[in-house]
Amino acid sequence: MVSRNISRRTKFSQAAVTVAVVALAAAGCGKSSTDSTGTGTPSKDGKYSAKGIGLAYDIGGKGDQSFNDAAYAGFKKAQDEFKIGGRDIEPQAGESDADKIQRLETLAKAGYNPVIGVGFAYAPAVKQVAAKFPKVTFGIIDDNTIQAKNVADMVFHEEQSSYLAGVAAAKATKKNHIGFIGGVDIPLIHKFEAGFDQGAKSVNPKIKIESQYLTQTPAEGGFASPDKGENAANGQIDAGADVIYHAAGLSGQGVIKSAAEHKVWAIGVDSDQYAQSALTKYKDYILGSALKNVGGAVYDLAKSVYEGKPLSGDVRGDLKSGGVGFADSNPKYKAMTAAVTAVNKAKQDIIDGKITVNTK
Prior knowledge:
Layout: E1 8-9, E2 25-26, E3 31-36, E4 52-56, H1 67-82, E5 85-89, H2 97-109, E6 112-117, H3 123-132, E7 138-141, E8 151-156, H4 158-172, E9 177-184, H5 187-203, E10 208-215, H6 226-238, E11 243-247, H7 252-261, E12 265-270, E13 286-292, H8 294-306, E14 313-317, E15 324-327, H9 331-334, H10 337-351
Parallel strand pairs: 1-14, 4-5, 4-6, 6-7, 7-8, 8-14, 9-10, 9-11, 11-12, 12-13
Antiparallel strand pairs: 2-3, 3-5, 13-15
Helix pairs in contact: 1-8, 2-3, 4-5, 4-10, 6-7
């Protein structure tokens, strides 16, 4: 198997998010959502003989209708297309790096390739386990600190899609008052806020923007507590915001619930949350979603390993490559012609280099 060091923007394959309802069974460190084993159909050059894809979820697990479910979509698409096996494992509450190390080692020892950690929290585990299994390709989403020949760092320009969310929010608000809710107060989520603020202020420099982070650390539940998201959204709506953008994973479901109950707009994140079945009763109040094609990244890495040419190094998605974007599934949003035009223009200006989006 040949490893390629790649530091470039890549066109992530589009993977529609389909959430399967599965029974959870205890398996190793964490819970295994699915465990479809087998060598599958060998690749044309005969180089692929692994059991399939190993996927380890981030905080919140599968069913968050956002970040983890986007990863699952790519996992499932690769399984179906290449007819290979796979195992995806849920995280545990309050787990340590040692738990993550054990989870990745379990997948690698069992013969899965690639093995993917969903979220920056897997960085220490990927670094350690990848060194022990040099013939296995590892992927990590939202981190590019692990420099190894058998590691693909799958990262994104989240600030670009967030800029579009800001433009949409500023065009949709009737009060010139909007809000941002981040799951955890960390640099990654600061990128979402920075882009959102800049996009909104490009439309109206005097717009009022509420801002709140649910927790200081992931362990406190900022990405996994819908109640925290709902309470934060209630507060911002009470303060006068009528459009709220969240970058809070599972906690964002609470933000969306609050927005719908107050009949104001919510903007989703990572997946097209308007299209998520679990959020159907709220979808009329989901203006759009700032997309991050995590599913495409998972699929592309699996495809590269299956074809015997595994990706490695910095693999970054942006607006130009389709790695990030803004979902316009809601017909009510499509009917806002001024908003749609402004978002499309901002997107092209970012692609053309006329707009540089802030990351802080």
